[in-house]
Request: fold
Amino acid sequence: MNETRAHPLAPPPWTLKATVYMFAFHVPSKQQLPAFAYSPLESQSAFSSSSKFCGGLASVQVIRYTESPVGPYDEMLLVPGNFEYEINEGGKVARKRNLQVSRIYVSQKLTCYNGRLNWNIPKHLARFSFTSPSPGTTKVEVFPNDTTGDSIESTASMRPFFTGIYSPVSYIPRFPFSTRIAGYLGIDFHLVQPPLPEGNAKDGELPGTTKWCKILPLQYSSKTSMIWVDLKQTVTSAKGISAKSQPENIAGATGDAVAMGPGRQADGIYSEFENWWPGLGRWQMGLKLENAIVEFGEGKYWD
Reply:
């Protein structure tokens, strides 16, 4: 690491306060990851190839942090499922599986910088929009800085990478919820994150790392409610959009001649997955955690 820091360090542990919107879904082990599962920087590095995708429990979270060691910020993250990786244990190579955050956006540079350094979380900057189409309903749009082809990621895209409308489920009272319950159900919520590549960000908020990291984030709220999530992506229905009128790559690696994979056109327009993730239904059941406590502790690191 460079001796001169681009931003102040905020080492772990972190305790944060937030409102969390989340939904989960199952991804078959044989399903190929869509190209947009990684940001362009990480998709072109060993971060995306040093472990094997195995499917399983996937989740998407939108989080509004009101308190953190680096101040308030917004976040949207994707955990597409489990990844298999190799680790040396007592001189023997073992294969293990854990969840991984493959793509994540945040609204300010301090958390981007420190999240990458502390836990290998592949954070990039984005602009977030929160509106209320109707009482009790929240519409979230995320406009990334890394899909415009600008190598220094200095400005946000004009088009959203993700749109979700979150509405309350009637007649179900709020209840306490903690991710600690996963351990009792035999579910391992540990994240194992490969080393990150360094980006060419304008203000140095995309540092690289050299070691693997294992971390167990925790979330708790005494005011948790069931919600509906509408995943209809308005951009995806616009099949007549041309590359000239919409030159940005909304969902994956940049470049005119990149092979986009299933559901992608050669011009980078994200056109097939009308409900954001391939094969996912428009309406999903989720959770809203109000006044939540989020904890990120010390990670376990290895080469």
